TrEMBL record:
Protein name per its UniProtKB record: GIY-YIG nuclease family protein
PROSITE patterns listed in its UniProt record: GIY_YIG
Domain GIY-YIG: residue ranges: 2-78
CDD domains reported in the protein's UniProt record: GIY-YIG_UPF0213
Highest taxon listed in the record's lineage: Bacteria
Family according to the record: Belongs to the UPF0213 family.
InterPro entries the UniProt entry points to: GIY-YIG_endonuc, GIY-YIG_endonuc_sf, UPF0213_domain
Amino acid sequence: MKFYYVYIVKCSDNSYYTGMTNNINRRIFEHNSGKNQDCYTYNKRPVELVWFETFSEPTQAIMVEKKIKGWSRRKKEALINEDWDKLVKYSKNYTEFGKDALRQAQDDTSSTSSV
């Protein structure tokens, strides 16, 4: 059976990059070796693998990769840290919960240390 991986790497500038591959070790090596000069991570090396999940279906992996790419930094950090309460909190719709909920979430983020 072939496996597919959705992963998040932390770049040297503290940004995150989300990707998908069928060989996680090879892909991290490619990011760090600078194989592709057009890649987001090229000028942000070295990168560190901080999260990944394994899938058996490529369409499922692609769907999860696209979803995570649309997430905020704090939501990605909640996933990386396995902080399920914050992940749920940061998933709430801004228009449904309003500015007060957004302000509280930002206060929570600023009061915690960065990854």
